[in-house]
Amino acid sequence: MNLSSLSIAATLTAVLAVFVLRHSSSVSPSDQSHQHGTFVPIAADVFRLSYSWHIPWLGVWAPVHVLLASFGKDYVLFDAGAPGREYADFLLPRLETALGDGQLRLIALTHGHSDHVGALEALVQKYPDVQVVFHQDEAPYITGQFPYDSLPSDHDKFNVTMFDIDVSSALSEERVLHVRGSSRDVADAFRPSGCASDVGWLPPRGALHFHHAPGHAPGLVAYLHKGSGSAIVGDIVHQLGDPPVVDTSHFGFTSKLTQSTLSAKALAALDFDVAFPVHDSAAGVTKRALQDWAQQA
Ligand SMILES: [Zn+2]
Predict the structure, then answer these.
(1) pTM exceeds 0.85
(2) Where are the transmembrane segments (predicted)?
(3) CA of 280 to the centre of ligand 1 (A)
(4) Closest to 278 (Cα-Cα) out of 241, 239, 220
């Protein structure tokens, strides 16, 4: 690690340490009681599993949430949690319980950073028929064609080498579905080959939309769950600290800061009631709170 990397790592450590210290009442390395035991309802037909992720290269903890939406007996999982066998072992049995006699049909990824695809390989091994959907612009990075730190950046503190993990074994072409463009119904997702005829189960038309919000990652998307008014927003914004504070993701993790802020502001104008970030020390961000943040950002 060179001096520049050390400096960036030290900065990130300090920032994340502030996150952790500011919500230390709910997150502590020596107290695992914050690891909630199950997916809990957080909106109509939407469930959330919460745990804390120990970030090994920084030595700190951060909250991570995995969301699950039901469409009758068919389920969509949003993101796949933190990297590491222990997090997959935490997620998979709880997902099995939450699914009951329902079926996991889709894993909808907001983007491909390691703390969003951590259990992807374990999930597709357990659910061999599941399809994985993500934005076409994220494909080169999720599939490992290019590392995230090869992305052009609009500032000199971008360093996300830690966000690359190899999940290519989970992403065979017959399993992958892409969404593309700026905003559309997920029911229009398509195979990377362009073939539409062999696409498997998709949510009912009108039930789940995606919204492209690049900046933090090139293919970052929010998913709008229309039935509940939920926006599942990945890392477009986070809400951390005690009291929780809304903001965009940290500069060290975000290649294009200006675009990221514009995308988060655009998110605030969409049709939803509550946004659910992956890194959230509260129970989501109301649209009003996001609009208040957008006005001063
Ligand atoms: Zn991210």
Answers:
(1) yes
(2) none
(3) 13
(4) 239
